[in-house]
Amino acid sequence: MSVITDPLFYLLAIPAITILGLGKGGFSGIGMISTPLIALSIPPLQAAAIVQPILIVQDAISAWVYRRDYSAWNLKVLLVGGVVGVGAAWFLATYLNDSHVRIMVGVIGVSFVLYTWLGRVPAEPRRPHAATGVFCGALAGFTSTLAQAGAPPYQVFMLPQKLNKMTLVGTTLIFFAALNWMKIAAYSALGQFTLETLATSALLMPLAVATNFFGIWLVRRVPNATFYKIAYVFMFLISLELIRSGVLDVMRGA
Questions:
Q1: pTM of whole model > 0.90?
Q2: CA dist list (Å): 155 to 3, 65, 110
Q3: Which of left, alpha, beta for 98 (phi over 0: left; psi -120 to 50: alpha)?
Q4: pLDDT (tens digit, 9 = 90+) per residue, 112-129?
Q5: Could you tell me which of 82, 67, 52, 63 has the C-alpha nearest to residue 25?
Q6: DSSP symbol at 5
Q7: Crossing angle of the two packed helices 195-219 and 7-25, in degrees rounded to 10
């Protein structure tokens, strides 16, 4: 059955694209759920190919909206690492198991959130070393390319800085927009883009754009302190999901 006419596909794709739109609107990280959700009805590589053009369009919208709200210093150090991470993932893709990558990233995310909730992270904002930013950017680029799981390493670096909400959102969206453009070459080399996947992306695009603008509208109305609380909860839940899905994949392969 064609993907475009498969009811099960749309039953999963519509909530997935809605979540993706909210993530690209400013609630960073939750969009990471979208590709695995769609992959419940179609092969994971096909799901990634359908989502990727949607990400590019949403990135363009969000980057324009938040074009004045970003931290130049953070982007510089993170993108240096991001280039290295995407390149390393492309080179090592055939040698690595993405299930183990998801487990690793999930453990990092859960550990960091628990560390924060237990009061171990300083209450006052602090600017980390540039080398830490390069490392976290590389890890985010690496895990984003291999397992669509770049948010936890990125947030480990960004959240303790306690930036203004809009600055954090803008920096996040611009960083991941740049990563998504870098990943196009890698995905193209794997032959993932077909007429079928592109047609399906186009069909879902209006919903993606609408939910993107809704996310932008919503994030502007959430108080700064509440936004950070939501960000930590999302990071915790997403990290748990990464661990769960990674462990299940390992068990299936055992």
A1: no
A2: 34, 21, 12
A3: alpha
A4: 778 777 766 566 777 789
A5: 63
A6: G
A7: 40
The tokens for 235 are 């990071």
- Listed residue (150, 138, 215) closest to 177, CA to CA: 150
Q: Could you tell me the end-to-end alpha-carbon distance of the chain, in angstroms, rounded to an integer?
A: 31
Q: How many domains does the chain have?
A: 1
CA distances from 221 to 59, 151, 155, 226, 254 (A): 21, 23, 21, 10, 47
Q: Can you give the residue range of the structural domain that contains 100?
A: 3-253
Name residue, tokens 């480990």: 156
**pLDDT at residue 1, rounded to an integer:** 44
Residue showing tokens 């237990």: 118
Outline where the chain has alpha helix (H): 7-25, 34-38, 44-65, 72-92, 98-117, 130-147, 151-158, 165-189, 195-219, 224-253
DSSP classification of residue 129: P
Cα 130 to Cα 105, 161, 163, distances in angstroms: 21, 13, 16
The CA distance from 106 to 102, in Å, is: 6
- φ, ψ at 94 (rounded to 5°): -75, -10
Q: What is the pLDDT of residues 46-67, one digit of tens each?
A: 777 788 889 889 989 988 999 8
How many C-beta atoms lie closer than 10 Å to residue 207's C-beta?
Answer: 16
Query: What is the C-alpha to C-alpha distance for residues 240 and 107, in angstroms, rounded to an integer?
Result: 8
| Contact predicate 55/24, CB 8 Å | yes
